[in-house]
Backbone:
């Protein structure tokens, strides 16, 4: 078994004009997805990231640029991640089928976690 | 059985949901959880319990979180929600986080702006899932007073904007002290109460032990362990303390074979861990005292000299009228009549509410030893007027009759 990180980008709730019911429904889907992975014993962990942050780039000195993340296009923003155990990328792709926010323009990026111990 | 299972899960659910939606929404949360539990109790009375009740309840808790979202967010508290924030909410329902939430709730309840008694009522309601009626019965107060107390508690939490967290640093030291005190009082309400319902007593005691266990698991503090030892020693005597016709039996007259050996053993184990510190607290000395009383095979064989040392140490930390009275009893037991009398004379009776009869009884014994029977009679008469307990009353009457005229 390898470990993969599913990184969630985009999915802008704020500008989608969701009603409370719609948010509630999505919450149910996220919980169901988490439970499903938990029960299957493949869920390693996950975190959400708060909106708003800083992006720093450029060489030290004059070139150093600090950008507020709201200025960055929301599609690029990482909202959070789940780490799961799986045999292959293909398996993780199947897991992402339950990701609830594709319809809001959300994207999932899958990356293998490098583990030097194995 | 069902009710008890749910009682233990109630606080877990309330604290987890409060972690998500904030203490300001406690009323909404409690209503939702209460409703869930009432339905569950009804359902499982007629159906089989699920194989894994805790897992089942966790699913229910998550569903409640979803239900509550709309109610809570209608107050516009959740503008910044995003899909991934639900990942974090999920985490709240893992074992470790549930324990963490429970501690947050406990520390919030024990905020110093709340009166000690209010803290206990608040804890029984929110943490232990007692109904108002059950609290009223357990603490022998009116339901109306329970209601008022809960209202006061909530108002203080709001007014002081108490955060739903375990504080750190100096604040932690203060707060853990008040958490200890609240648990101690909860235990005493169970153990010393004149409530006739043995079941209620056991419930309160069990809750106190459970809460303290939670503290020990997380913080591993010697004073929590000392308090645990003390509670075990006391709880071991519960069965022997109540007669078949529901009268309180004093230590002196208890059948020692009725004491719970398992609990005594546990008490000693906790005590061994508790003394691994340089700083003994009141709970250390109180545990030592409770343990010493239990060590003796008979009341007469009690090691009074040791008890005197323990009491003197306790009084250095906690010079209460009640502790001085106990010291006087022990001094008198050892024939140190003059010291016993001086100790009694230093006590302000105002501070001995409910135990005045003991004060007069000890005085009577001292005068009896001094062969001043007139004063002894006077004291016994005062004791008789002050006593409520029937078996104590008959004992005092007996002593009155036995006095040489």
Residues:
């Amino acid at each position: 078994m390898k470990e993969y990180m599913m990184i969630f980008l985009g999915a802008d709730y704020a500008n989608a004009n969701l009603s409370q019911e719609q948010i509630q429904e999505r919450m149910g889907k996220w919980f169901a997805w988490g439970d499903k992975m938990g029960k299957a014993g493949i869920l390693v962990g996950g975190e959400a990231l708060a909106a708003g942050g800083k992006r720093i780039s450029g060489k030290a000195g004059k070139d150093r640029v600090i950008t507020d993340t709201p200025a960055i296009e929301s599609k690029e923003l990482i909202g959070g991640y789940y780490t799961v155990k799986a045999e292959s990328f293909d398996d993780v792709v199947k897991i992402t089928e339950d990701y609830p926010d594709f319809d809001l323009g959300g994207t999932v990026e899958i990356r293998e976690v490098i583990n030097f111990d194995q | 059985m069902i009710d008890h299972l749910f009682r233990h899960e109630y606080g877990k659910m309330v604290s987890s949901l409060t972690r998500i939606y904030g203490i300001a929404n406690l009323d909404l949360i409690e209503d939702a959880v209460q409703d869930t539990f009432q339905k569950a109790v009804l359902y499982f009375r007629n159906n089989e319990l699920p194989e894994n009740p805790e897992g089942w309840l966790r699913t229910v808790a998550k569903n409640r979180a979803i239900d509550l979202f709309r109610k809570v967010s209608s107050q516009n508290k959740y503008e910044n929600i995003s899909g991934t924030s639900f990942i974090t909410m999920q985490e709240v329902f893992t074992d470790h986080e549930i324990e963490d939430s429970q501690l947050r709730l406990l520390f919030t309840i024990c905020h110093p702006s709340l009166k000690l008694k209010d803290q206990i009522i608040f804890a029984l309601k929110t943490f232990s899932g007692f109904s108002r009626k059950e609290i009223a019965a357990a603490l022998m107060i009116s339901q109306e007073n329970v209601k008022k107390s809960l209202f006061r508690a909530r108002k203080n939490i709001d007014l002081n904007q108490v955060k739903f967290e375990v504080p750190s640093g100096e604040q932690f030291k203060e707060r853990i002290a008040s958490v200890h005190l609240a648990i101690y009082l909860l235990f005493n309400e169970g153990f010393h109460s004149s409530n006739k319902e043995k079941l209620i007593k056991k419930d309160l005691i069990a809750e106190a032990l459970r809460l303290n266990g939670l503290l020990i698991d997380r913080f591993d503090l010697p004073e929590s362990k000392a308090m645990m030892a003390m509670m075990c020693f006391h709880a071991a005597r519960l069965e022997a303390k109540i007669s078949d016709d529901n009268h309180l039996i004093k230590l002196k007259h208890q059948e020692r074979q009725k004491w719970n050996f398992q609990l005594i053993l546990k008490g000693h184990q906790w005590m061994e861990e508790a003394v691994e510190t340089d700083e003994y607290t009141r709970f250390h000395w109180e545990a030592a005292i409770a343990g010493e009383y239990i060590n003796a095979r008979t009341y007469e064989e009690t090691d009074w000299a040791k008890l005197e040392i323990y009491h003197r140490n306790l009084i250095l930390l906690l010079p209460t009228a009640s502790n001085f009275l106990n010291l006087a009893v022990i001094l008198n037991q050892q024939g140190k009549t003059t010291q016993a009398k001086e100790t009694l004379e230093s006590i302000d009776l105002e501070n001995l509410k409910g135990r005045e009869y003991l004060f007069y009884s000890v005085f009577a014994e001292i005068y009896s030893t001094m062969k001043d029977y007139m004063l002894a009679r006077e004291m016994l008469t005062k004791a008789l007027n002050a006593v409520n307990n029937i078996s104590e009353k008959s004992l005092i009457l007996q002593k009155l009759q036995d006095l040489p005229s």
Observations:
- Chain A is about 25% helix and 30% strand.
- The helical segments of chain A are 20-40, 89-95.
